[in-house]
Write a structure and sequence with these properties.
The protein is of the alpha/beta class and 337 residues long. The chain contains 14 helices and seven strands. 44% of the residues lie in helices and 9% in strands.
């Protein structure tokens, strides 16, 4: 393991653990600071003390670099590895092994923290077969949602990055507006492989309004997945938020009939849908998509948490679209258009 690899993995693992951004960026700055320096020169600079005075290298980074140069796994990295959460049950681990992709991720084009290229590289390292890039739509201004013009530009970037080893799918997390329509031009939605429809506004509206908006999103032939369906937050830096109330029997019946998947969101702060609604969606015959809602490369490794919840709830793997081969998945996402 090179010092650069050790520092990069630490940043990745800190992201997965939702550490403070300044801690993550400290290790990314250290990677950049030594990116073009060979091991022999690093050893010499560590020995004469100049490495510790290099801009971007802090005390912890210097320790990691020094230990990596000695040929071992740095102590700090080993501790992060030892503390890493993973599916705790045999069923969770088995289901995780069946997952081929992730249909809900973000980049710095909206409210993610890194370039698209960084998300793609992390997904490749994790062994994903496909990854959908689903940055936000224009109505969500607080998240720098993509206008039609910016989404058109992004489509060219995605096409250029798609290559062997893993398929990058053009997509969007599109806001469900107050009238139940989707927040992007239909002609642009036609060009996307994956459309995750989510509610981000008026989450405390009455049961009738939330139900109508979800039914409107499901009825739109572009919709592939309903994202974080209740909008709840159960922990984390943003605090907590109660779940939206809606007629779950009507919504899940409509989703099952339309072949729209209900997302099992793997973010620890969401754990959406709640266990009771997840059981109801299973009984209704819904499809599911286990996704990370990743906003940074390290978040892509949260997929196991969603797999654990799905396995504990008894979701049949055949009804989880992210276990499907790419051709089957794309046939499904385009079937209603």
């Amino acid at each position: 393991m090179t010092p650069q690899e050790a520092l990069a993995e630490i940043a990745f693992r800190l992201e997965r653990d939702r550490a403070e951004p300044f801690r993550i960026q400290a290790f990314r700055r250290a990677v950049a600071a030594i990116a073009d320096i060979g091991d022999d020169q690093l050893r010499a600079r560590a020995a004469d003390g100049s490495l510790g005075r290099t801009k971007g290298i802090g005390g912890r980074s210097l320790e990691v670099i020094t230990q990596a140069l000695e040929g071992g796994t740095p102590d700090y990295l080993q501790r992060l590895r030892d503390e890493a959460e993973a599916p705790s049950s045999d069923a969770g681990r088995e289901l995780l092994s069946l997952l081929r992709g992730d249909l809900h991720t973000h980049s710095e084009w909206s409210d993610g923290t890194t370039p698209i290229e960084s998300m793609v590289e992390a997904a490749r390292i994790l062994g994903r077969e496909y990854l959908a890039l689903t940055d936000h739509s224009p109505n969500l201004k607080v998240a720098n949602g993509l206008t039609a013009e910016r989404l058109t530009e992004q489509l060219d970037v995605v096409a250029a990055l798609d290559g062997p080893g893993m398929r990058l799918l053009p997509g969007i997390e599109v806001d469900v507006l107050e009238d139940g329509t989707l927040d992007q031009e239909p002609a642009l939605l036609d060009r996307l492989d994956v459309v995750v429809a989510s509610l981000h506004s008026r989450l405390r509206a009455d049961r009738h309004e939330i139900t109508a908006r979800l039914l409107g999103a499901i009825a739109d032939p572009h919709t592939s997945v309903i994202g974080h369906i209740t909008g709840r937050l159960v922990e984390g830096r943003r605090g907590t938020r109660p779940q939206s109330e809606f007629d779950s029997a009507r919504v899940f019946a409509a989703a099952a009939d339309a072949g729209v998947a209900i997302e099992i969101n793997s973010r620890p702060e969401r754990q959406d849908p709640p266990d009771d609604l997840l059981a109801e969606a299973i009984a209704a015959g819904c499809l599911f998509s286990i996704d990370t809602d990743a906003h940074a490369p390290g978040h892509l490794d949260l997929l196991g948490l969603g797999a654990e919840r799905a396995a504990a709830a008894g979701v049949p793997s055949a009804r989880i679209v992210t276990t499907w081969p790419l051709d089957e998945l794309l046939t499904w996402t385009h079937a209603r258009r």
